[in-house]
Each structure stands twice: as structure tokens, then as C-alpha cells.
Specification:
The chain is about 30% helix and about 25% strand. The protein is an alpha+beta fold. The chain has a domain of about 60 residues. It has a 3-stranded antiparallel sheet with strand order 1-3-2, covered by helices on one side. It starts with a helix and ends in a 12-residue tail after the last strand. The relative contact order is 0.19.
Length: about 100
């Protein structure tokens, strides 16, 4: 192995970002996290408006105290679950959005 290649392979990567660390004060305030997973399904002919109505049905069930449930007719409907004990965020890094 030539000297330049040996140098390149033996040096640690310095451009890798450090892993994101959650502020302990914030973690004590906000954790455990809640995670709501919703699946809404329609056929290829289902209008987006009907999918939105299914989402509203899920929201109403949550307001009524349901933490999980489903309603469907085989190819159209919804399924959801609310978990209230998550120790890790589904998001990587700090604040962000698009």
C-alpha cells in the first residue's frame, strides 16, 4: 500500500457530523413522546377529499378517547394507533421542516 493511501485509510473522518443530542432539560419536559400512526386507504378512484374525510373520522375518534382502531370495507377505510411511551423521536437532528 502506498503512503498516501495508508494515510487516507487510517485517518478518522472529520467531516461526519456529530450525532444529535437532545437537551436533557427538554427531554425531561417533553418525553416520553406520543406517536400517532394513521393509515388511510382508498382505491385508485378514491378522491383526495374522501381520504381527508377518513382522516377527520380518525381525529374524531381520538377526541372521543380511542387510542387505536380501524374501520374499512376491505379496500377503503382507516386504521390508527396512538402510542404514548416513545423514548425516541421519529425525526433526525434538531428542528426542521419543509
Amino acid at each position: 500500500m502506498n503512503d498516501k493511501l495508508a494515510q487516507q485509510t487510517s485517518q478518522p473522518e472529520h467531516n461526519d457530523p456529530a450525532p444529535f443530542q437532545i437537551n436533557p432539560t427538554w427531554k425531561a419536559h417533553a418525553y416520553p413522546l406520543k406517536l400517532l400512526t394513521v393509515h388511510i386507504q382508498g382505491t385508485r378512484r378514491t378522491e383526495v377529499e374522501l381520504l381527508a374525510r377518513e382522516l377527520e373520522r380518525v381525529a374524531e375518534r381520538l377526541r372521543n378517547g380511542d387510542f387505536r382502531g380501524e374501520s374499512h370495507d376491505d379496500d377503503y377505510g382507516h386504521r390508527f394507533v396512538l402510542e404514548t411511551d416513545k423514548d425516541e423521536s421519529i425525526f433526525e437532528g434538531g428542528c426542521g421542516g419543509y
